[in-house]
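Many introductory courses stop at the sequence. We go one step further.
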Amino acid sequence: RDPAHPVATVYGNAPPQHLVQRLADVDIWGINYYEELTFSDLFKTWEATSEKPMFLGEYGADAYNAIAGAIDTAAQAHATSVLTQEIVSNSVIHGGVCTGGIIFELSDEWWKDGGGSPHEHDIGGVAPGGGPHPDKTFNEEWWGLV
């Protein structure tokens, strides 16, 4: 253990308490979280799980709306704004448990649709039950903000 070099890890969703306890040398936990327009009870769950700081390792929404079958940058911008404000409201600056968040993603990733072309902006995604606003579908090639 080296206190001069903190150890961070990122987990998909909130890790269970037994895992946090087992990995006691982790100094700060990142959580990837995608659930529409809210982090739901994530911050309260983390506060009950650990006294260590946490951050959002990934959050956001893609710009393709599978329900409308169209690009929907307004929905992406809305989700980004709402989720970012929720992070700020639950930040350590305001007495919360969150140290910040990393928006996913800065640029589109055209290679992500395995059935598509890395040279074209393909439509396709997965809907595992829960997911980003507005369609709960992870349209993997459409996450970029720029």
